[in-house]
Structures are given as structure tokens and as C-alpha cells.
Amino acid sequence: MLKFALAGNPNSGKTTLFNGLTGSTAHVGNWPGVTVDKREGVYKKCAEPIAIVDLPGIYSLSPYTPEEVIARNYVLDEKPDCIINIVDATNLERNLYLSTQLLEIDVPVVIALNMIDAVERAGDKLDEKALEEKLGVPVVRISALKETGIKQLMDVAYKASKSPRKGSTALKDTALSHLIGDVKIALDGQGVKNPLFHAVKLIEGDEIEVAMHKDTLKMVEEFKKTFTDDVFGTDFEALIADARYKYISKNFDSVLSKKNKGSMKMTKSDKADKVLTHKIWGIPIFLVILFAIFHLTFSEDFLYLGAIFGLPSLEELGVDTETFGGQLLACFYDGAVFSPGVIINNIWNEIIVGNVLGWIKTGVESIGMAEWAVGLLNDGVIEGVGAVLSFLPPILVLFLFFSILEDSGYMARIAFILDRMFRKFGLSGRAFLPMIMGFGCSVPAMINTRTLADDKERAATIRVIPFFSCGAKLPILTAVAGAIVAAFGIGNADVITFSMYLIGIVAAIVSVLLMRNTSLKGDTPPFIMELPSYHAPQFKNLMAHLWDKTKHFVKKAFTIILASTIIIWVLTHFSFNWTFLADEEINQSILAQVSMFVQPLFTPLGFGSQLGEFGWVFVVAAVAGLIAKENVIATFSTLAACLVAVASLNVEGLDIEAEEGIDAVRAMITATGITVPALLSFIAFNMTTIPCFAAVGTAKAELNDNKLYKGTLLFWIVASYVVGAMVFTIGTWWWTAFIWAAVIAIVCYVIVTINKRSAAKKA
Amino acid sequence: MIKTLDLFAPNEKGVVKSVGGEGRIKRRLFDMGITPGAEITMRKKAPLGDPIEVTLRGYELTLRKTEAVCVTMEV
Questions:
Q1: Rg of chain B over all Cα atoms, to the nearest angstrom
Q2: CA A552, A553, A555: angle at the middle one, nearest 5?
Q3: Does B59 contact A527 at a Cβ distance shorter than 8 Å?
Q4: Cβ-Cβ contacts under 8 Å for A708 (sequence gap 6 or more)
Q5: β-strand pairing of B39-45 with B52-56
Q6: Would you state the pLDDT for residue A27?
Q7: Which residue in A140, A486, A615, B1 has its CB near the most CB atoms, within 10 A?
Q8: Residues A526, B24: C-beta atoms closer than 8 Å
Q9: Per-residue pLDDT, A271
């Protein structure tokens, strides 16, 4: 199959064009060696099917960012049959800078001139024929958005792919041309492919190139000695970049004729920007938007209508929620109007998933298999899949909002507004985006750290993302907080939930500060970033994005999580001598036995030895949580049932099977006599410890370094242990706060002194 | 008059004279179009005073003051 690569600047409409070309055939994979998403699809409307590969959005082929290295390696090593270089006509100069580099490679290139309608709407004119003549490759005008010109583009590209093309350089009329020519001939003589491209890069002193052509380097250095420039001296990298831009402005200024030259008009985008990044209102507006997103996704009292008007619950209205109509109504309203996110969640979980899984379970029971097999299928497999699928709605709704922010151009402004604050922690403003996404789900958040150019900054960000409590951890919070309020009659569940979120955020900040000053030390990465024009997000793009995420998540549900759910089910339903145990006999299970053994380890956290005979239940739940956080509360229900049987608990009036798990936790409180600080410590521990399997797998792939990955696992264990111990001890004996403060002060002092000393040594 | 880009006031305009700085930052500045002769207009500062937003070659770019120091401008 023919292979075309799609290359271009970020925000040039590349993704839109890709979606238009490939439709539903697109799939996401990883680049070999490096874990950046690779999107591939097939275009079928040509004489033969063509594979389209979407390269990462880049500004240049420099060796400094992973995206650029990937794009260049792909083009050089995988040898596509044609490169389609998408060029944003509204931003011709900067876009052509990348084109001048791509054109140096010996591969057919076709320029797709996008957004030309926007140029013409502004009253400007662009002469594409002149552009084509000067570049020496076909130029096709398209609108990726309206999907016009795409057929023609592909026909031209198909034709171009049939005849080989030799690279050409924008530097041929400069003083450098002789030098480039000499090096090119030398490389050509060695049989190097793409000699022109490599020659230019070698002269630039490009890190990758220098390592690749060590022998030729000496000769290049000799050549370079004969050459000096008045302005740049011997800085060839600067010289070449400058020559490219000079070439572009010399040749292409005439291509674009502007209606009102020079005068800067206020565009709609400028006006929006004036408000959104306002000196005083910028930050408050951002906070309101963030609040609105979480309110729309998670709030069970939309616009606080229920609280304001004192709306009656369905029960008070006499609605029978057992009927289908009542069930459906309960998805939208119960004493308060639900937010859209909650409504979607209810419909999905209560109506669709709930019913379908119910039918399957009934079916399994009726076949007449052995008891353990029914248990494995129904409680292990089906329940497990259901638990994972239940998190699809909040993740997708949150993703939808973040995609809107991203597509509209506001995300970049958030980075702009917050950079100053983040720099204090040794991160750039861009680190904010993945962190805030962590509130939805750690997996996409970790993948999103790809936008960070600095490896150490990336590692630090990936490590703290799980501290931004994800959707799956919320049930732990609500169940335990609800149980605390119900059992001890103190506090307010919302306050507890909120402070736990806050503890996570504080832990993240402290950890980043700590890491950036110790193990992940490094300069604050540069923050030189385009601020794209604002525009309305495209519905089609948003949907394509969400579809990608859904596929990714469902795949995850049916592989890693399904496997781990089965393993945990086996560990909780079989004893060491492999006899099948009923739910209520979980105390004899392999997992419980192991947990009893390690229970003392958790004594400083409040749920260890001091809980006596049944203390192991919290350890079991925490271990189950390592596999998927949604397991923690599910395990609580099972464990509560077990405690009722084993400890002959009197749990009258409690519904331990209830989904929220509050009563299950109450049963465990009664059985173990666990204290409030220990329960809080349990939440804090679960929030900051090793995240679910899926997130751990993602972290491993994204870090792509075994040492860093092992360090990350260790970091999570230590962090959760310290945070849990801190919460428990301070909650139990308030004066221990002073001891912790003293320890922290000493640690800070030691780090600062050591860093000062090593800095002084360097100087 | 010659001064570095970080010292520009909003709406001040100038032409790039030279670009300095450490390798990675310099290359990035070049790649984004900050080359000698390019015309840059300072747009605004972020709410917390840093980074800054500039217009050049028909688009908006943001960079920190510590990076803008590397750009010497002719006003």
C-alpha cells in the first residue's frame, strides 16, 4: 500500500484534514521506540488505497523536542511515498519555514494550502500559482474544515508519488551554497540517502546528525573553517535559520498581497483575548470556567436549583422509581435537577449498563454451571467490566470540555496566565493542563504530558498526576466521608471530600518542589509557545476526539482491568489450598491471609495492628485498589458481608449491599473500631498511592525509562505512606503537627544547603 | 535605541537585531521566527506580569521575560 505522511505546524488544521481523509478508518497507536500517539488511517478514494500517517505537529526539524525527532525519523527511515505538507495560509511565513526543511529531503512533497478562505475573507489575495512556481512542488488549495479540495489534493499527491523527487534547498542562492554543495557531494560519495538534508543538518551542527556521521564531521569542520559571516560569525545554526526566513520573505512577500498593509486591525480573536487574559479579570474568569466545567460534569444539584427552591424529592412526589418511567425520571431529577454530566452518567449506568449486565447475569445463572464458575463470571468478569464501563461517562464528559478548551485556543492562554505561578515549582504553565486532566482520569492526563518538552519536567508531572484525585477515587471519598458523618455524627461530608482533594493538591505541589530540587533537578524548561487564534470548536473534531478516547478506554477495560479483576477475584475467593470460598468466607482467602501478615506495616497510618482481629479488611481494600480504584468500594461491600458472617455483627438498618458503600463502611467501622483520623488517613493513602493498573502501565510507557519508572513506583509508595501517617498522627494527636513541621523544616534546610554547596562547587 | 525585548512596554514595536541565549532556547526562538530583521510588537503581559505576548510574522507568540532577554531589539 502507498504511504503518505501528513506534516505541518500545530494548529494548521492537520488533524481536521486527517479526519477528513481517513474517516472512520483512523486508529491510534504508538510510535516505535517513543510513546507519542501515532494516528494512521486509510484513504480509499484514489486508484489504490493509501495509508495516511499523521505526523506530530511541529515548527521545525530541530533535534530538541521529541515530536520533531519523531517526524524527522519517520520521514527519513520509513520513506513515505509522498509528504503532504499542510500550510496555514493565514500564517504563511512561519509555516513555510518547515516546508523549506521538508523540501530538502528526497521525497515527493505536495503543499496543501489551508484556510485560504480566511485570508480572502480578510480581503487579502494569495497567488497559489506563484507559490507553486517558487517552491517547485504542487500546491493545492483546500479547506480542511469544509472538506473542499481534498479529492484534488489526493489526486495530485497520488500523481506526485509516482515520480521520484530530488531534494532542493532554500539556501542555494546564499553564501552557504558552496559549503552545502561540498558536504553533499562528500555524503553522496559515501552512499548516504538524502545527502542534501544531512549536509544541511551537519553544517548546522545538529546533535543527532553529528552522532550519526562522526567520520564526515571532521571534514565538515574543515570546510566550515573556510567560512565566516559578518553577523553570525561561526554560528551555523543561526545562520541557516536566518537564511531560511530571509528566503521566505524575499520570495513570498509578493505572493500574498495584503489589503491594508501595516495597520493592525482588531480581530474578533483579539477582542476575546483582551477579556480572557485581562490583567485583573483573567484569573477570576479562568477559575469560573474551571468551576463551571466541574459543576456541569459532577454536580447533583445543577445551578443549585434544588437548594435554592427547596425542590421535593421523587419519593415526596410519590413517584414509583421501580417502574421504567420512574427510573428514567430519576436519571434527571431527584430533589434537585442533575447536571448534564450526572444525567448522562445515570442514563448510562442505571438504564443501559445496569440492565444489560443484569440480563447477562441472569442468563449465566440459568445455564447451570458450577457455583465457582458462576461466581467468577458474574462477580469477577461481568461486575468488573461493569465497574470500568461505569466510569466512561464522567471521563468522556470531562474530556469533551477539555477538548473544547483545547480546540478553541483557550488552553494555551491558561498556560500563559498560569506560567508565572508554575515556574515557582520548577514547571512551565503547560504542566497545568495534564494536571487538571488528572481530576478526570490519570491515563489521558499522563499521555497529555507529551506537550512538555523537558524530560524531567515530564517525569515530575507524571508522578504527581494521580494526586489529582480522579473520577474513580471519588466513590472512595463519598463512601468513607458519608460513613464518617453517619457513624460519628461529626462534620460535613462535602467538607471532608473537599479537604481530601486539597490534601492531594498540596501533596502534588510539595512533591514537585521536592523532586525538582533533588532527583529531578533541572532548569525550568523554556516557554516559547504560539498562542493560536481563538475559533469555535468543530463538532466533528470533538466527536472524533471522543471516539478515540472511548475506544482507548474500552480496550483498556477489556484487557488490563478485566485480567486484574479476575486475579483479584481468584485471590479473594480461593484459600491457599485452592478450595472455593463463598463471599462471606473472604477472611480465609489468599488475599486476606497475606493482608493479615502485612497488617502491622500500616500501624502508623491508623489501620494496622491497632484494629485487632478484623483490621486486615482495610489492607485488603487498599490492595484491591492498587488494581483499580473502583475496586476499593466494591471490596468494602464484599468484606462487610463477610464481617457480618464472621464477626456476627449486628448491622440492623444498614444496607451493606447499597451501591454508595456508605453502609458497608459503617459495618466495618463497627467491626474494627477504627477512628476518624484513621479513616481519613485511609482515604489519603488511597489517593496518593500507586494508581490503578491502567495508569501505572501508562506511566511506564510514557516515562520510557526503567529506572525512572521504578523510581516512580517507589515514590508513590513512600508518598502515600508519609501522607497517610501525617493525616493519622496529626488527626489523633494534634501536637504531632509540630514534630512534622520540624521534620519538614530540617528536610528543606538540608536540601537547600546541599544544593547551595553543589552550586558553589560548580561556580 | 537598542534594548532587549523583555523591557518593551505594551504596543511598543521594534526590529530584531540579534538573538543570543543557550542552544536550545536560541534554536526555538529562531524556529518561531525571531530572526534578525523580524519586526516584533509587544502586545501585553500576563496577569501576573510574566510571560509576555508578542506579535510577529502575523501571529501571536508567548515567551518568558528570561527568554525575551536573549532578544536584542532596535527600536
A1: 11
A2: 70
A3: no
A4: A459
A5: antiparallel
A6: 65
A7: A615
A8: yes
A9: 87
Q: Which residue of A has its CA nearest to B60?
A: A531
Partner-chain residue, chosen from B29, B41, B47, that has the shortest CB–CB distance to A282: B47
pLDDT of residue A261 exceeding 60: no
Check CB contact of A207 with chain B, cutoff 8 Å. Answer: no
Lowest-pLDDT choice from A108-112, A538-542, A652-656: A652-656
Residue count of chain A: 763
Superfamily the domain B2-74 falls into: Ferrous iron transport protein A (FeoA) (2.30.30.90)
Q: DSSP letter string over A204-261?
A: HT-HHHHHH-HHHHHHHHHHHHT--BTTTBT-HHHHHHHHHHHHHHHHHTTTEE-SS-
H/E run at residue A30: strand A27-30
> Cis (ω within 30 of 0) for the bond into A475?
no
Instruction: Output the furthest CA–CA distance in chain A (Å, rounded).
Output: 93
Q: What is the DSSP letter of B24?
A: H
Residues of chain A contacting residue B23, judged by C-beta atoms under 8 Å apart: 237
Q: Report yes or no: A170 and A248 within 8 Å, Cβ to Cβ.
A: yes
Query: What residue of B is the nearest CA neighbor of A281?
Result: B47
Do the beta carbons of residue A475 and residue A633 sit within 8 Å? yes
Q: Which of A31-40, A287-296, A577-586, A619-628 has the highest mean pLDDT?
A: A287-296
- Which residues 14-53 of B are in CB contact (within 8 Å) with A? 18-19, 23-33, 35-38, 41, 44-51, 53
Contact predicate A194/A105, CB 8 Å:
yes
Residue recorded with cell 569542520? A221
Backbone angles phi, psi at A104, to 5 degrees: -75, -15
- Cell triple for residue A474? 471519588
Is A30's pLDDT higher than 60? no
What percent of chain A clears pLDDT 90, i.e. is strictly above it?
A: 24
Instruction: Residue window 521-550, chain A: list those with CB within 8 Å of chain B.
Output: 526-533
Lowest mean pLDDT among A372-386, A631-645, B11-25: A631-645
CA distance B30 to chain A (A): 6
Name the burial class of residue A228, with classes exposed (0-12), middle (13-18) and buried (19+) by CB atoms within 10 angstroms of its CB: exposed
Are B62 and A529 in contact, with CB atoms under 8 Å apart?
Answer: yes
Residues of chain B with C-beta less than 8 angstroms from the C-beta of A417: 46-48
Measured distance CA(A488)–CA(A483) in Å, rounded: 8
Three-state DSSP state, A25? helix
User: Which tens digit of pLDDT belongs to each residue from A421-438?
Assistant: 888 888 888 788 788 878
Tell me the three cell numbers of residue A281.
479579570
Tell whether the model's pLDDT for residue A394 goes beyond 80: no
B interface test, pick of A410, A528, A533 with most B CB neighbours within 10 Å: A528
A710 phi-psi bin (left φ>0, alpha ψ -120 to 50, beta other)? alpha
- Using the Cβ of A231 and the Cβ atoms of chain B, whether some distance falls under 8 Å is answered with yes
Q: Are A451 and A425 in contact (CB under 8 A)?
A: no
Percentages helix, strand, coil for chain B (3-state, rounded to 5) are: 20, 40, 35
Report how far residue A763's alpha carbon sits from residue A517's, in angstroms, rounded to the nearest whole number. Answer: 18
Give the three cell numbers for residue A470: 480522579
- Asked if A62 and B31 come within 8 Å (Cβ–Cβ), the reply is yes
CA A79 – CA A77 distance, rounded (Å): 6
Which of B64, B71, B72 should one mutate to test binding to chain A, selecting the residue with the greatest count of A CBs within 10 A? B64
Neighbours of A115 (CB within 10 A): 23
How far, in Å, CA of A443 to CA of A504, rounded? 17
Write the CB contacts of A611 (distance below 8 Å, at least 6 apart in sequence): A599, A618, A672, A673, A674, A678
